C-alpha cells in the first residue's frame, strides 16, 4: 500500500494561461468568476468539451441504487449550488455532479465581502460563502426536471444537504430530515454535509450525539422509502485519525454507504488563509492542491479500516495521476472543484492523464 502521496503537477498550457488572464482581469470578483463555471460548461463544446466515455458503476451491498458515472471525476458540492443547467456540466468530461449544499430554505450566506479569495502562487481557494442557496424545494424541483436527461448520459446527480446554520436546538433534527427527504426524491445519491467550516456554527461531525440521532432518522426514512438510495457523509479533512475512525464506526452502524473525504480544510488551522477573508472574523475553508496529501493519507486510512465503505476522495485533486493513485487505493470515484479555477478543461485533461500517462 502506497502511503507516500505524490502531489503530481502539470505544465501550464495555452488554456491554463488564458484562465490565468481571466483570473487576473476579475481578480477582485472571485465570486462572480466562480459563478461563471456554468456558462463555461455550456459553451465548452465550442473548444472541444464533450461527454466522457469512461463509464463506471458504484454498486452497494445493501441494495441501494447503483451510481452510474460516465467518468470517475465528479463535480464537488458548492460549484453548482442551485441545480441550474446541470446537463451542461457533462460537457466538461465529468461523470456526475453534486448539487448544493442545500438547506431547508433560501439562505443568503455570509454577508461580508469578499467571501471567496484565490491564492495564485499556491493555486488554492479560500471560501467563506456560508451555505448560500435557494432552498431545497426549488433545488430539488430543478434536479427532478433535468435528471432524466443526465441519467441517459450516465451523468449522475447527487444533492448535498445540511442543517440550517443557527437553527434552534429543538428544531435541528426535523430541519435536516425534511431537507434530506425532499432531496431524496430527486437525486441519484445524497450527501449529508456535516463539515461546513464557514457558517460560524459548530461542525456536526464533531457532535457525536447529533450524528447518531440524525443518521438513525435517515436510516429509518430509507427503510420506508420505495427505493433505497446511497447516502454519503461529507467529513472534514482536519479530523484526527482517531476521530475519523470512530466516526466511520458510528456511520457504519446506521447504514451510511460511504464518505466524501473531505470538505475544505478549516482555514484557522492552516497558514495559507487569506488575510482579506480572515479580517471579516468568519472562519472559512481552504481547498486546492495544498490539501491533497492529507486527502490521500486519510483516504488510505479509511479504506484500510473500513474496506466496505464507498470512499470518495475530494481535496486538491488536479491531475489524472492523482485520480489513478486514489483509484488504486480503493477509492470509488473522486470529486473536484478548485481545479476548475486553475486548469482549462481540467476533467478532460485528467482523464487523458489517467489513461495515457
Ligand atoms: C467556493 C467554494 C464553495 C464550496 N461550497 C461547498 C458547499 O456548499 N458544500 C460542500 O459540501 N462543499 C463545498 N465546498 C467544498 C468542495 O466541495 C470541496 O470539498 C473542496 O473544495 C475540496 O476540493 P477541491 O480541493 O477540489 O476544491 C466549496 C468549496 C469552494 C471552493
Detailed description of the structure:
With 357 residues, this protein is of the alpha/beta class. The chain has a single domain (14-356), classed as Alpha-Beta Barrel (TIM Barrel). It is 36% helix and 17% strand. The chain contains 12 helices and 14 strands. The chain has helices at 14-25, 30-35, 37-43, 136-152, 172-186, 208-224, 241-253, 275-278, 292-305, 320-328, 339-342, 346-356; strands at 56-58, 67-69, 73-75, 96-102, 116-119, 124-127, 156-161, 189-193, 230-235, 258-261, 265-266, 285-288, 310-314, 333-336. The strands form 3 sheets. An 8-stranded parallel β-barrel has the order 3-4-7-8-9-10-13-14, surrounded by 5 helices. Strands 5-6-12-11 form a 4-stranded antiparallel β-sheet, with no helix packed on it. Strand 13, helix 10 (320-328) and strand 14 (333-336) form a beta-alpha-beta unit. It is globular. The structure holds flavin mononucleotide. The site of flavin mononucleotide (FMN) has 27 residues, from strand 6 and strand 12. Flavin mononucleotide binds at residues 34, 76-78, 81, 101, 116, 125, 127, 129, 131, 160, 193, 234, 263-264, 287-288, 291, 314-317, 336-339.
Give a quick precis of the structure.
The chain has 357 residues and is an alpha/beta fold. The chain has one domain: TIM Barrel (Alpha-Beta Barrel), CATH 3.20.20. Helix content is 36%, strand content 17%.
Topology, pairings included?
Blueprint: H1 14-25, H2 30-35, H3 37-43, E1 56-58, E2 67-69, E3 73-75, E4 96-102, E5 116-119, E6 124-127, H4 136-152, E7 156-161, H5 172-186, E8 189-193, H6 208-224, E9 230-235, H7 241-253, E10 258-261, E11 265-266, H8 275-278, E12 285-288, H9 292-305, E13 310-314, H10 320-328, E14 333-336, H11 339-342, H12 346-356
Amino acid at each position: 500500500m502506497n502511503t507516500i502521496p505524490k502531489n503530481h503537477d502539470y505544465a501550464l498550457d495555452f488554456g491554463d494561461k488564458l484562465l490565468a488572464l481571466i483570473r487576473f482581469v476579475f481578480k477582485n470578483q472571485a465570486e462572480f468568476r466562480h459563478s461563471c463555471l456554468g456558462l463555461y460548461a455550456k459553451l465548452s463544446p465550442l473548444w472541444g468539451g464533450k461527454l466522457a466515455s469512461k463509464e463506471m458503476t458504484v454498486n452497494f451491498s445493501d441494495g441501494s441504487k447503483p451510481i452510474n458515472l460516465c467518468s470517475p471525476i465528479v463535480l464537488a458540492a458548492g460549484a453548482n449550488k442551485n441545480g441550474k443547467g446541470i446537463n451542461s456540466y457533462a460537457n466538461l468530461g465529468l461523470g456526475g455532479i453534486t448539487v448544493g449544499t442545500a438547506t431547508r430554505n433560501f439562505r443568503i450566506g455570509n454577508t461580508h465581502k469578499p467571501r471567496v479569495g484565490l491564492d495564485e502562487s499556491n493555486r488554492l481557494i479560500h471560501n467563506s460563502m456560508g451555505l448560500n442557496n435557494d432552498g431545497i424545494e426549488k433545488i430539488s424541483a430543478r434536479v427532478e426536471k433535468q435528471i432524466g436527461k443526465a441519467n441517459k448520459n450516465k451523468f449522475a446527480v447527487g444533492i448535498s444537504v445540511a442543517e440550517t446554520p443557527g437553527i434552534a436546538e429543538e428544531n435541528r433534527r426535523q430541519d435536516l430530515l425534511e431537507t434530506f427527504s425532499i432531496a431524496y426524491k430527486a437525486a441519484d445519491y445524497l450527501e449529508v454535509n456535516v463539515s461546513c467550516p464557514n457558517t460560524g456554527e459548530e461542525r456536526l461531525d464533531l457532535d457525536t450525539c447529533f450524528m447518531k440521532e440524525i443518521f438513525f432518522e435517515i436510516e429509518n426514512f430509507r427503510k420506508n422509502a420505495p427505493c433505497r438510495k446511497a447516502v454519503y457523509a461529507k467529513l472534514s479533512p482536519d479530523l484526527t485519525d482517531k476521530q475519523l475512525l470512530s466516526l466511520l464506526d458510528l456511520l457504519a452502524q446506521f447504514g451510511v454507504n460511504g464518505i466524501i473525504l473531505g470538505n475544505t480544510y478549516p482555514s484557522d488551522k492552516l497558514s495559507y488563509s487569506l488575510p482579506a477573508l480572515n479580517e471579516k472574523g468568519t472562519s472559512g475553508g481552504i481547498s486546492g492542491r495544498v490539501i491533497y496529501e492529507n486527502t490521500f493519507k486519510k483516504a488510505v486510512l479509511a479504506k484500510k479500516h473500513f474496506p466496505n465503505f464507498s470512499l470518495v476522495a475530494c481535496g486538491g485533486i488536479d491531475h489524472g495521476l492523482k485520480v489513478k493513485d486514489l483509484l488504486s487505493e480503493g477509492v470509488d470515484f473522486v470529486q473536484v472543484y478548485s481545479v476548475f479555477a486553475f486548469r482549462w478543461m481540467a476533467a478532460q485533461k485528467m482523464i487523458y492523464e489517467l489513461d495515457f500517462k
